[in-house]
């Protein structure tokens, strides 16, 4: 009877000899997918890897992906190996590029360094024994030198190398090298016979040199039938410290043979629209918007399975213009003056996918469409509708957004009409509620919150130039001294304050720093600036009386009015 808990391996590793891997890399049968990062190891890491190989220590599993005839991915040669040309490799390396490149270069004498074994370090000549690996001083036994780049470097290398330094790249001809080496040794010292020396060094060869050819590296090979989304997930799991592989990188390799170079498309888009770089737009989000336009879905499986090179050709430009247009609108009309205050990166996806339809409208019809698109933005933010399941939410929103934004008719996205907006949510929300927090700051900027010093409305340039950031209204240290029960980290206790004003606030009671500000700026100006931040300053107001709870309640009422004005919704009172 078979137990349900018996081993049932889905993948099995098969060891492949190092010499075979080197031969197949040179023969262009094994290559790298084009999305892999470049070779970055320094010579020290290669020396350590060689040490592990000749000591017969484990060096980790390699992950290959067998390629089929039906679909080709853009690939490239290992650094130092022959160019692929028209050759289509049989396998691509998903994990192990650094190790394989290091070993290939060391064993073929390519790359920027040359590696040597000082064979005498592996021998106890006095006792006629081969040392155990733990007895070897590997810092002396394995060295690397820059590849000769001229007479000066050649001379320096020659001065460093002794007759006992064996080039790792000549591992195949070690016996010929040994004959010459023993001949030199016996000519210098006749106390050892050539036969005895050769016997000793051949034992050393079998123990430490042969593994450079025979060592079996465990290779796990994904079959050609492995779904592309599975390959993506596997690579992401294994390669967290290297260059991340996402759908964008995978599709770049898939579309390249079809004449669509996504990398070039993206570089061109960034050159044309600076905001893409400023807001750190993920190119995968662009692909999601393309998939929305083509198939009504932003799910990763659909991006990987359904999206074609022709879809990219058809929708790429309009989506890029949409992303740039939406960012510009959010900056100009919604207070998103920096990437830090964009509540959700994913919200750009359905908005960008809808943008081209708005551009097709008559000029007088675009204004109402922009207003509806902004209303969707604010409602999504303040209902926190993208906190969970954003990929699914994008598809659901786009199915309604496209028609509703253009005509104002039909069902609006659920955040616009169906989801609740509650005042209690804002009363208790802390700055850990990232989207609400960002939306709150954007709302203040949209409402023309003023600089405490100049009284000028905050703009993108002023926020960056004057170092304006979010700071406490009731200082955290002050509330701690007063042993206030409510958290200092509530969103309602934050506003956009320049660094100089924040130094004035420091840890003082609000009544104290407000008196200092009134003396410096004038009471009328101070009252006007505070009002622009949704803060009421009257003799009996909470901030004037240092009453934190009263201040929060008062500010909530003003903020609620601002939220209602941008969402067109009434907040539910609890």
Shape: elongated
Q: Tell me the strand percentage band.
A: 5-15%
- Strands ordered across the widest β-sheet: 1-11-3-5-2-4
- Based on helices, strands and strand pairing, what is the structural class? alpha+beta
Q: How many beta-strand segments?
A: 13
Distance between the termini: 62 Å
Low-confidence stretches: none
Helix content: 40-55%
Sheet having the most strands:
6 strands, mixed
Work out the radius of gyration: 34 Å
pLDDT average, as an integer? 89
Count of individual helical segments: 27
Structure, described:
The protein is α+β, with helices and mostly antiparallel strands. The protein has 27 helices and 13 strands. It has helices at residues 18-26, 43-54, 97-108, 138-141, 151-160, 174-188, 194-209, 211-214, 228-238, 247-255, 262-272, 274-278, 283-295, 300-305, 309-333, 348-359, 363-382, 390-407, 414-417, 423-428, 434-446, 460-465, 476-481, 499-505, 510-521, 523-532, 548-567, and strands at 13-17, 30-33, 62-66, 75-76, 91-95, 113-118, 123-124, 129-130, 142-146, 165-167, 216-222, 468-472, 494-498. The strands form 4 sheets. Strands 1-11-3-5-2-4 form a 6-stranded mixed beta sheet. Helix 1 (18-26) crosses helix 3 and helix 16 packs parallel to helix 18 (390-407). The radius of gyration is 34 Å and the shape is elongated.
């Amino acid at each position: 009877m078979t137990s349900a808990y018996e081993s049932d391996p889905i993948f099995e590793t098969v060891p492949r000899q190092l010499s075979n891997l080197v031969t197949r890399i040179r023969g262009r049968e094994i290559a790298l997918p084009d999305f892999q990062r470049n070779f970055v190891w320094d010579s020290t890491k290669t020396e350590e890897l060689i040490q592990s190989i000749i000591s017969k220590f484990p060096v980790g599993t390699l992950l290959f992906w067998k390629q089929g005839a039906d679909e080709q991915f853009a690939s490239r040669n290992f650094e130092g190996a022959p160019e692929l040309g028209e050759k289509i490799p049989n396998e691509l390396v998903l994990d192990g590029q650094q190790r394989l490149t290091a070993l290939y270069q060391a064993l073929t004498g390519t790359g920027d360094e040359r590696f040597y074994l000082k064979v005498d370090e592996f021998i106890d000549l006095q006792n006629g024994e081969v040392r155990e690996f733990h007895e070897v001083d590997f810092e002396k036994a394995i060295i690397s030198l820059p590849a000769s780049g001229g007479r000066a470097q050649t001379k320096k290398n020659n001065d460093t190398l002794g007759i006992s330094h064996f080039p790792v790249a000549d591992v195949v001809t070690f016996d010929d090298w040994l004959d010459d080496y023993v001949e030199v040794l016996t000519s210098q010292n006749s106390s050892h016979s050539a036969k005895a020396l050769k016997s000793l060094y051949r034992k050393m060869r079998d123990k430490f040199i042969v593994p450079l050819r025979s060592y079996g590296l465990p290779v796990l090979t994904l079959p050609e039938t492995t779904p592309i989304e599975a390959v993506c997930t596997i690579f992401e799991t294994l390669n967290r410290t290297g260059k991340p592989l996402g759908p964008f990188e995978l599709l770049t390799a898939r579309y390249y043979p079809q004449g669509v170079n996504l990398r070039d498309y993206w570089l061109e888009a960034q050159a044309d629209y600076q905001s893409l770089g400023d807001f750190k737009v993920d190119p995968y989000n662009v692909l999601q918007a393309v998939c929305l336009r083509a198939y009504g879905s932003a799910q990763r499986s659909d991006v990987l399975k359904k999206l074609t090179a022709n879809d990219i050709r058809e929708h790429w430009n309009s989506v890029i213009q949409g992303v740039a247009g939406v960012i510009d609108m959010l900056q100009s009309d919604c207070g998103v003056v920096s990437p830090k205050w964009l509540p959700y990166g994913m919200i750009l996806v359905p908005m960008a996918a809808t943008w081209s339809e708005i551009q097709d409208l008559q000029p007088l019809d675009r204004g109402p469409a922009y207003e509806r698109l902004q209303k969707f933005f604010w409602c999504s933010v303040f209902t926190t509708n993208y906190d969970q399941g954003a990929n699914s939410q994008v598809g659901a929103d786009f199915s309604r957004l496209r028609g509703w934004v253009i005509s104002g008719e039909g069902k609006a996205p659920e955040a616009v009409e169906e989801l609740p907006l509650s005042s209690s949510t804002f009363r208790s929300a802390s700055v850990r509620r990232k989207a609400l927090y960002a939306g709150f700051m954007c709302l203040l900027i949209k409402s023309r919150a003023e600089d405490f010093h100049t009284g000028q409305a905050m703009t993108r340039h002023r926020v960056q130039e004057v170092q304006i950031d979010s700071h406490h209204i009731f200082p955290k240290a002050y509330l701690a001294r007063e042993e206030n029960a409510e958290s200092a980290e509530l969103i309602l206790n934050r506003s956009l304050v320049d660094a100089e004003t924040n130094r004035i606030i420091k840890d003082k009671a609000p009544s104290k720093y407000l008196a200092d500000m009134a003396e410096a700026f004038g009471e009328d100006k101070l009252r006007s600036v505070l009002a622009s931040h949704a803060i009421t300053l009257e003799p009996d107001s909470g901030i004037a009386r240092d009453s934190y709870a009263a201040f929060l309640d008062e500010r909530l009422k003003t903020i609620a009015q601002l939220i209602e004005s941008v969402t067109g919704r009434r907040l539910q009172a609890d």
